[in-house]
Amino acid sequence: MGTVTGPKQARSRVTRRHLLEAAVSCLAEQGWAGSTVAVVAERAGVSRGAAQYHFPTREDLFTAAVEYVAEERSAALRDLFHTGPAPRPAVIEALVDMYTGALFRAALQLWVAASYEEQLRPRVTELEARVGRETHRIAVELLGADESVPGVRETVQGLLDLARGLGLANVLTDDASRRARVVSQWTRIIEATLGPAA
Questions:
Q1: How many angstroms separate the CA atoms of 83 and 44, rounded?
Q2: Residue 25, C-beta contacts closer than 8 angstroms, at least 6 positions apart
C-alpha cells in the first residue's frame, strides 16, 4: 500500500508546485484581474478541479504562490552565501535583485488587489509581515550586522525598503543603470554604519 501512496503523493507535490509557479507567472504578467484559477490551471497543465482540490479559493492559490516563491528565493539567497556573512556589496546586490523579478511583480499585484479586495487584505498583510521578517533576518545574518548597536536595525530595514523602492521603479522601465549607482552609494553607507561584520 505504501508503494501506491508514495508516487501519488509525489505527483500531488509536483502538481501543487506547478500550480504555484504558474500562479506567480500569471499574476506577474496579467495582474489580479486576469489571473483566475482556470487560467492558472491551464498554464500549469492541470484540470480546474485539480487546482481547486489543492487550493479551494482564488485567495488560497495566490497567497500560497507568493509565499512559496518567497521561500524559494530566501533559500536561494541563503545557498548563495551558505557560509554565513559574505562580502557586503555582493549581499546588498543580491538583496536588491530579489525585488526586480517576477516574484516582486506578482507580490505587487497581490498588494494592489488586497487594497480593494476585503477578503484578501488580511491574508496579504499577514503574508507580507512574515516574508518581511524572514527577509530582514536573512539580511542581518548575511551582512553580519549587530542589531544591538543603535541604528543598525533601522539601517538594515532601510536597505530593504530601498530595495523595494528600486524594484518598484523598475516595474515600468529598466532602471538598471540608476539602480547600480544607488546601490553603490547605499553599500558605502551600510559599510560605514555597520562597521566590521559581527
A1: 36
A2: 43, 102, 106
Classify residue 196 by burial, with Cβ atoms within 10 Å: 0-12, 13-18, 19+.
exposed
The residue whose grid cell reads 527577509 is 135
Instruction: Look up residue 83 and give its amino acid.
Output: T
Q: Which pLDDT value is given to residue 84?
A: 65
Q: Chain centroid to CA 117: how far?
A: 21
Q: The pTM is what?
A: 0.79
Q: DSSP character for 41?
A: H
| Helical ranges in the chain per DSSP H | 2-30, 37-44, 48-54, 58-80, 88-97, 102-116, 121-143, 152-172, 176-194
Residue with cell string 507567472:
25
Q: What CA–CA distance (Å, rounded) separates 157 from 78?
A: 18
Q: Report the alpha-carbon distance of residue 70 to residue 24 in Å, rounded.
A: 10
Cell numbers that stand for 55 in this block? 487550493
Average pLDDT in the chain: 86
Q: Please list, in sequence order, all residues whose beta carbon lies within 8 angstroms of the beta carbon of residue 179, skipping any fewer than 6 positions away.
A: 96, 100, 166, 169, 170
Alpha-carbon gap, residue 22 to 43, rounded angstroms: 6
Give the angle subtended at the CA of 21 by the CAs of 61 and 108, to the nearest 5°: 70
